[in-house]
What does this fold into?
Amino acid sequence: MKTKIIVTLKNGILDPQGKTVEHALHSLGFKGVRGVRIGKYIEIDTDSSNGGEVEEMCKKLLANPVTENYEIRSEGE
Amino acid sequence: MVFPGSNCDRDTVLSASFVPGANVRRVWHKETSLGDVNVVILPGGFSYGDYLRCGAIARFSPIMRAVAEFASKGGIVIGICNGFQILVESQLLPGALLTNVSRKFICKNVHLRVERTDLPHTRGIQQGKILKMPIAHGDGNYFADPATIDMLEKNKQVVVRYCDENGDATPASNPNGSINNIAGICNEHGNVFGLMPHPDRCSDAVLGNTDGLEVFRSFAP
It folds into this structure.
């Protein structure tokens, strides 16, 4: 089964990558862009439908608890 | 310790072996025991290609269990650059190392103010001495939440700080945006030390700078 995870930087953590993209969008004429934050999208394909396992994967490896939040978006075939 | 992607192990072995009486060997990350050692060094490089996050995967290498146990018993551990990243990911040191604010990989000499000279890693260095060392990293921006930073400063766990030639920790002397110009920290017990600059790249006289040797010499009995 496939689980989709979004890993994002916590609020207050500086995101230079996001800032760079924000400036690039402004240069392209998208003046209304007030902020950009960039995260990670991870897709995990597992044998069984054990939701608790993916939670543990996020806590142990996929997200750094000091700087990142994770969100388990959806689970399904 | 050598992980897949470590590339500073040879320089580190060479630098450490300049210390009279030193017996230095490499330990592959798949080993499960350290053997009889006094000091564990986690070298620089790009373990696991910096995939996911720098040091995030290396921290789960089999040998890291032995390193954590060694550290918990007061064993002397030093992490250089990627080694520092592995130590924070392992939570053997607090905080995290983020991407440099400039988003550039920075390769240059920096000046460091040594603020702890009572550690096994720094006892050979004069208090207040300014060291010159090269950095070479894209993700050396030290971060921790305000409470942790407060604790680190109060407990004097900041071992080396980016500064100018005169020892002033100015914004201009901070190459990567690290909070409070932090270049290296130790744990509460003072046996685990991590730093982003490379003492292994300034220990050989032929390179014109041997400031790094002062760290390795500190390990001599």
In short: The radius of gyration of chain A is 16 Å. The longest strand of chain A covers residues 68-76. Chain A is about 30% helix and 30% strand.
